[in-house]
Specification:
This protein has 14 helices and eight strands. By secondary structure, it is an alpha/beta fold. The chain folds into two domains: 175 residues, NAD(P)-binding Rossmann-like Domain (Rossmann fold), CATH 3.40.50.720; 96 residues, Orthogonal Bundle (N-(1-d-carboxylethyl)-l-norvaline Dehydrogenase, domain 2). The protein has an eight-stranded mixed β-sheet, with helices on both faces. α1 packs across α2, α2 runs parallel beside α13 and α13 packs across α14. Bound molecules: nicotinamide-adenine-dinucleotide. Nicotinamide-adenine-dinucleotide (NAD) binds next to α1.
């Protein structure tokens, strides 16, 4: 596979903008392509907004000079210049297939094409593509420029070399690559998030709690722990000296009790209102932009603290710093 000097993006909304900011910060040029010419101003704004957070996240690290961003509405131009293409068009299967087919036709076999899809399986997107072996799913998390997780999922026809090269590229831009063993709808993380969200909507529907109370139940308790260890390791510790087996014995039987639902409630106007009105009330007059800024400052601070303990996303940040230092040193050595 090619060395990635230019990242091609197709679809430059929330996720495309996040990929652009992360790659540019790591010295990679980006050619962004969107059907809507107005997205040029949007993506330039998104990159500018993300830059201070990225600078703060990597403060003290030998980051390379920033890459250059260009924009086009011409997919042929994007495809001809990109060494690696990340697809980020809306989550509609037919649209994604329609967008991917000509891109695969126009690009050489050594250009990896990766989809940011939140839920489609790579085999569904890969079927019929030219050189399907260089296609895979690289599912990121919003904001892509600060959340390091990328789920790498291969389809029936994806080559192992594609997975390895994609993982190497994503690590080179500071990401944690989770190699998903089996393609399933929703990959790993979104299935977990959706299960929780389903319960949230039931609680709203049954008038058990408001959006604020539901968020408090996460933020002050389990959510605080999850960034450090995740649910399984945390539950092992909660078993005390008896560890995981004791925890299972104590809380396993509760799984049989009807604490949670498996099916989502019907999305009536009432439940949508409760969700929208509740979250608006929680915002306390702050705009989405202001909330994003608070979220980003906290995401940076949390990761820098985790780095001191070499835990979770902090370990990814340490690995990224080591990679940058090795690269900077090897350049010095060659001079
Ligand atoms: N938003 C999230 O939290 C999130 C997280 C992870 C993954 N994803 C996935 O990323 C993808 C994009 O999501 P998003 O939230 O950025 O969507 P978005 O609506 O913000 O952006 C989509 C962009 O694609 C463009 N587009 C539409 N049709 C196009 C075409 N034919 N050619 C080129 N551009 C086209 C639109 O103009 C728009 O700018 C989806 O597959 C989604 O599931 C989203």
């Amino acid at each position: 596979m090619r060395e990635v000097k230019t990242l091609g993006l197709i679809g430059t909304g929330v996720i495309g903008g996040g990929w652009a900011a992360r790659a540019l910060h790591c010295g990679i040029d980006v050619i962004a392509c969107d059907i809507n010419p107005q997205m040029e101003a949007w993506i330039r704004g998104a990159v500018e907004t993300a830059a201070p957070s990225l600078d703060a996240l990597t403060e003290g690290m030998p980051t390379p000079p920033k890459g250059t961003l260009s924009f086009t509405t011409d997919v042929t131009e994007m495809a001809s210049k990109a060494d690696f293409i990340q697809e980020n068009v809306p989550e509609q299967l037919e649209l994604k297939q329609k967008v991917l087919a000509p891109i695969a036709e126009m690009t050489a076999a050594d250009v990896i094409i990766s989809s940011s899809t939140s839920g489609f399986m790579p085999s569904e997107l890969q079927e019929g593509l030219t050189h399907p072996e260089r296609f895979l799913v690289g599912h990121p998390f919003n904001p892509v420029y600060l959340c390091p997780l990328v789920e790498i999922v291969s389809g029936k026809e994806t080559a192992q070399a594609t997975k390895d090269a994609a993982a190497d590229f994503y690590q080179s831009i500071g990401m944690h690559t989770l190699m998903v063993r089996k393609e399933v709808p929703g990959h790993i993380s979104d299935r977990l998030q959706e299960a929780m969200w389903r319960e949230i909507l039931h609680s709203l529907n049954d008038d058990i709690a408001t959006t604020r109370e539901l968020d408090e139940s996460i933020v002050y308790g389990p959510g605080l722990r999850w960034a450090i260890m995740g649910m399984n390791q945390i539950y092992m510790i909660a078993g005390g000296d008896g560890g995981a087996r004791h925890f299972m014995k104590q809380f396993g039987p509760a799984l049989e009790w009807p604490w949670s639902y498996l099916k989502a409630p019907e999305l009536t106007d009432e439940i949508i209102d409760r969700f929208a009105d509740g979250t608006a009330e929680q915002a306390e007059g702050r705009s989405i932009r202001e909330l994003e800024q608070i979220r980003d400052e906290c995401l940076v601070a949390v990761q820098r603290v985790l780095a001191k303990h070499n835990m979770g996303a902090g370990q990814t940040l340490n690995n990224f710093e080591k990679r940058l230092r090795d690269k900077a040193n090897s350049k010095l050595y060659r001079k």
